[in-house]
Amino acid sequence: MENLKIHRAETLGETTFDSPLIDKLVRFYDGEAVACHDRTKELSKLEKIEDIEYFELAGPRKKVFFNPKDVTVGIVTCGGLCPGLNDVIRALTFCSLESYGVKRVLGFKYGYEGLVAKYYHYPVELTTDNTDEIHEKGGTMLKSSRGRQDDDEIINTLIHYGVDILFTIGGDGTQRGSRDIVNKLKERNIPISVVGIPKTIDNDISLIQRSFGFETAVEATWDIITNAHNEARAYRNGVGLVKLMGRESGWIAASAALANSAVNFCLVPEVEFDLHGPKGFLEVLEKRLRRKEHAVVVVAEGAGQHLFDKAKDATDKSGNKRLQDIGDLMNEEIHAHFKKKGLEVNVKYFDPSYNIRSRRANANDSMYCLRLGNNAVHAAMAGCTNMIVGLHHDRLVHLPIEMIGARKTIDPQSWFWQTVIQATHQPHSMVN
């Protein structure tokens, strides 16, 4: 495969130690790769076969960079909660200790804060005993926090505890932090592997087909939407208004609308809409209520941000834009519209975000977390660094962090969004 354009993960150096998995596994993945491109759309645009680019497949290697018995592993979880965090921690711990026999695994508490001495968050040693049942609970046993920390201080802590491998579980902000740590490690010529496991309940990391926790989140919306439907049907002109996660993409809201056909309107960040005017949402909602006397509206938290005053824009500790509350705005505007028309309306507003984020992973996500954790360990033991493990075209691959760019968003012209339109029967456009 010498002539192929393979995007390989950075490595710390030559792999010289035999993997302890040689006698346990029948297959290794040295040198294998999978095409980056979409098989039906992107490949047709290429002029020649040599233009196809590849990612290297994740999986165990026959040779590893580190001598396992001398290795100390560190794990950190950052950012918001997501179903499956404990599953990933457990998988990393078990694979490191049971499969590779590393010296010890340390969990650093409260995100990157736990790697800075001034916060006095001392690490906890993770074992197969104290992580054995954590996958049965939501949240993260290692706690979490948001925001950047000083890279030199982080590295000093890693050196203090003799950490050879650091696993960072978090979203794009966390992985940008991982990249900066790697760059500082290079400056200081320190051979520590940094491997990320991407986390976003919104399922919107570019090049990643599916992020862990997403399926659990969509599944959790079913009962919530059903309850909103029940509330709406119980009152004259009842409206069940449900706000779901989705800062810059509407994957959860749209998937929830497909999973539960009670949804009549699905509003996502990718598709702008007007509130007022003959084609605006409020007029369309009024027509629906005059006809059916109830409606269920699902709105992603990042939808309709164009309706707010841009002067109020601000960012959080992670550098993410603070969103204006579209749920509160729509609740107020619906009441105001129908009051002006002299019509009764009964809005029942549901905001289940934290209830969804904090639950444990479902069976499918739990299996996925196990695979992600195991393959992150395989990559790190082989000396890979400055990379994440993710699902791409149904295969787990090594993705260089530098390739993670713009958000993965819904294409309003895609079959996926067209299916949402067909399922909800909402207008294709609610713009005047």
From TrEMBL:
A GO term from the CC aspect: cytoplasm
GO biological process: fructose 6-phosphate metabolic process
Superkingdom assignment: Bacteria
Pfam families, alphabetized: PFK (PF00365)
Domain Phosphofructokinase: 73-379
SUPFAM superfamilies, A to Z: Phosphofructokinase (SSF53784)
Catalytic reactions on record: beta-D-fructose 6-phosphate + ATP = beta-D-fructose 1,6-bisphosphate + ADP + H(+); beta-D-fructose 6-phosphate + diphosphate = beta-D-fructose 1,6-bisphosphate + phosphate + H(+)
Keyword line: ATP-binding, Glycolysis, Kinase, Magnesium, Metal-binding, Nucleotide-binding, Transferase
InterPro entries the UniProt entry points to: ATP_PFK (IPR022953), PFKA (IPR050929), Phosphofructokinase_dom (IPR000023), PKF_sf (IPR035966), PyroP-dep_PFK_TP0108 (IPR012004)
Cofactor(s), names only, from the UniProt record: Mg(2+)
GO terms for MF: 6-phosphofructokinase activity; ATP binding; diphosphate-fructose-6-phosphate 1-phosphotransferase activity; metal ion binding
Sequence similarity: Belongs to the phosphofructokinase type A (PFKA) family.
Function (record text): Catalyzes the phosphorylation of D-fructose 6-phosphate, the first committing step of glycolysis. Uses inorganic phosphate (PPi) as phosphoryl donor instead of ATP like common ATP-dependent phosphofructokinases (ATP-PFKs), which renders the reaction reversible, and can thus function both in glycolysis and gluconeogenesis. Consistently, PPi-PFK can replace the enzymes of both the forward (ATP-PFK) and reverse (fructose-bisphosphatase (FBPase)) reactions.
Record protein name field: ATP-dependent 6-phosphofructokinase
Primary gene name: pfkA_1
